[in-house]
Fold this protein.
Amino acid sequence: MSFNTFGKIFRFTTWGESHGPAIGCVIDGCPPNIKVKEQDIQIELDKRKPGQSKFTTQRKEDDKVQILSGIFEGKTTGTPISLIIYNKDMRSRDYETIKNKFRPGHADFTYFKKYGIRDYKGGGRSSARETAARVAAGAIAKKVLENKIGKKFKVIGAVTQLGILGCDLKKWDDGTIRKNAFFCPDKSIVKLWEKYLLDIRKSGSSCGAIIEIRARGVPVGLGAPIYSKLDMDIASAMMSINAVKGVNIGSGMSSAQYTGEQNSDEIFQKGKKLRFNSNNAGGILGGISSGQDIVVSFAVKPTSSILKTRKTIDKFGKNTTISVKGRHDPCVGIRAVPIGEAMLSCVILDHYLMNKAQCG
């Protein structure tokens, strides 16, 4: 299969399957002399790894990353960075009874029709297990951006809606996000979310989620006005994440309901500093960063692997039913937070390097 590489200047190529011996990525275009150690990458991977709470899949992977190339004496060399993560807790037997059936909502049917062959164990290449490699690449991107832009640069994400239950964005607290199993920024709603998701799980079903990612300290001028818009590439990055079905930049779809006065982000000067009265544009105007926080949100569909019996067909074209056993997230959106952070970091770094190449 083609198209395993993301990015223009800062690029990464992921490889491996869900139940294969390992997964990993090769990063190209990383600037030299950036301080990076395995622990920097591990911190990000630990946010994503499975089995950390009763609200995620109980597959036990420590997701320990190993650097194979591209870093010497604690600094990047400018050569390709190769990273590997070994798979350890595969239970391929869970898929033996359904290997000839197409799981509704999964890529099984389309993948098989396109390639004529598929790895049925956990989805193989189309599994969300692949995203661990993206998070590793994103960790490198974050280190580069912190070096080039400074400590004012920060990317942080949160789950802002779990199924039918939203949270109060006015109560967003960065410190709260890492202190609960949901990456929720509003501590007042966490207990209700716990009960809701446990009920969903006990019923053998699943739910979706909305994730919001914010990038702070992004300089003005990243992006281009036509075919390499910053928001275009951000939307593409988020849509590439497994189970994502919709993306908003700033007010996004809601902006269709506003009047021109409500939607426009008024600009004014305060002393030597430029200010905006609002950020409906999500920090991007005409495809170019405005210097405000970049705000992107995306919707993740409910986990397609559920215990409840559903109608489907097998690879021979016969009607049948399926109930997916095994270990699955009742809401895959929860673990999508560090993936969204990683993808946004990679896009911003890519555009930062392109801007340096063109504008100096």
Remarks:
- The radius of gyration is 21 Å.
- The chain has a mean pLDDT of 93.
- The chain has eight helices and 18 strands.
